[in-house]
Amino acid sequence: MEAILKVKRFNPEAAKPEPYWQEYRVEVEPHFTVLDALIKIREEKDETLSLRCSCRSAICGSCAMRINGHATLACKTKLSEMARGRPAVTVEPAGNMPTIKDLVADMTPFWSKVMAVEPWLQPRGPEPQGEYLAPADAMQHLVGVMACIMCGACVSDCTVLEIDPNFLGPAALAKAYRFVGDPRDQADAERLQALSRYSGIWDCTRCNECVQACPKGIAPMDRIMALRDRAMDAGFRNNTGSRHTEAFEEIVEHSGRLDELRLAIKTFGMMNVPAMLGLAPVGLRALMRGKMPPIFHKPIPNAQAVQKLFKKVEEAQKGDRK
Ligand code: FES
Q1: How many Å lie between the centroid of ligand 1 and the Cα of residue 65?
Q2: Phi and psi based region of residue 208 (left: phi greater than 0; alpha: psi -120 to 50; beta: remaining)
Q3: Of the residues 33, 51, 62, which should be mutated to test ligand 1's pocket, given the most ligand atoms within 8 Å of the CB?
Q4: By Cβ atoms counted within 10 A, which residue in 62, 158, 250, 283 is the most buried?
Q5: Among 3.90.190.20, 3.40.50.970, 3.40.50.300, 1.10.1060.10, what is the CATH number of 108-124+135-233?
Q6: Is residue 322's pLDDT more than 80?
Q7: pLDDT exceeds cutoff 80 at 255
Q8: 2-105, what's its fold?
Q9: What is the pLDDT of residues 226-251, one digit of tens each?
């Protein structure tokens, strides 16, 4: 059968180095992955098409790219499933990274962010005679995150990185969790303090795109949320992210609904004039569109039911920590 692939091409050595779409028609077998089709195109139709792959078994992480607009591993993605109901399968390089050529992304920013979280064990005290051993139970929660193959699919689809390239991003933060959660690592305080700064754990917007994109089920966003809990438990609360979380919780627990005006004041502080002025355009836009929250906030009729829910969650969390 014939498949149609629309591939985003880019040649930095062209007279006009602009990305453009190129359509390929290729004979494929029903079992073909997208990577199989791309390799066939390169071997039979266009030897200038550049792509990166190695294991072809979803192990090495080198074939991450955007297929039909979402990042995934080309070697793990069946072409027939991607083609269903579409005139063509679109293939682009991974996002949020510069493109070297065609489907080959430059992973330099990815690796520099992974290195920024110091992804190595930092034990303190005397060196053991043999290995640094950890009880199996204490490592169980890290099994998932240790399966990361560093393909960059989560980074490709991260919506925060699209607007703030300084954000450490889901892969580096999931890697940071792997070490913060390791009982043999004793640099938790330094790590959590650094991660609580701008571009760290509090910059995630919880859009869930990284969870969708990850081909290994690492759920980077969940690791970022776990790091937030650990940072707050460790006392790193003097930042807008922590204050926002605490204020949100307190307001909803008190009245059963969110009071956006109080939330902003409690997050940034009334005396923080630059932050308050920075919010003024948002307030103005809300006012003009009739979406300004009321100045006098009323609790919902049965706010006690919400308070009971908060109590139950608190008790469950206490039980989990024991
Ligand atoms: S080629 Fe190794 S993960 Fe796809």
Answers
A1: 11
A2: left
A3: 62
A4: 158
A5: 1.10.1060.10
A6: no
A7: yes
A8: Ubiquitin-like (UB roll) (3.10.20)
A9: 999 999 999 999 999 999 999 999 99
pTM for the whole structure: 0.89
CA 193 to ligand 1 center in whole angstroms? 35
Instruction: Tell me the average pLDDT of the chain.
Output: 94
Over residues 70-86, the mean pLDDT reads 97
Ligand 1 proximity of 55 Cβ (cutoff 6 Å):
yes
- The pLDDT of residue 297 is 84
User: What's the CA-to-centroid distance between 52 and ligand 1, angstroms?
Assistant: 8
The structure tokens listed for 271 are 């005396």
Cβ of 160 less than 6 Å from ligand 1: no
Ligand 1 neighbourhood includes 62 CB (under 6 angstroms)? yes
Q: What is the pLDDT of residues 291-316, one digit of tens each?
A: 888 888 888 999 999 999 999 998 99
Backbone angles phi, psi at 27, to 5 degrees: -80, 125
Q: Where do the H-state alpha helices sit in the chain?
A: 34-44, 79-83, 108-116, 136-139, 153-156, 159-163, 170-180, 188-195, 209-213, 220-233, 240-255, 260-268, 273-288, 303-321
Find the 261 Cα to ligand 1 centroid distance in Å.
49
For the record, the structure tokens of 311 come out as 């109590």
How far, in Å, from the CA of 36 to the mean position of ligand 1?
11
163-178 pLDDT, tens digit each: 999 999 999 999 999 9
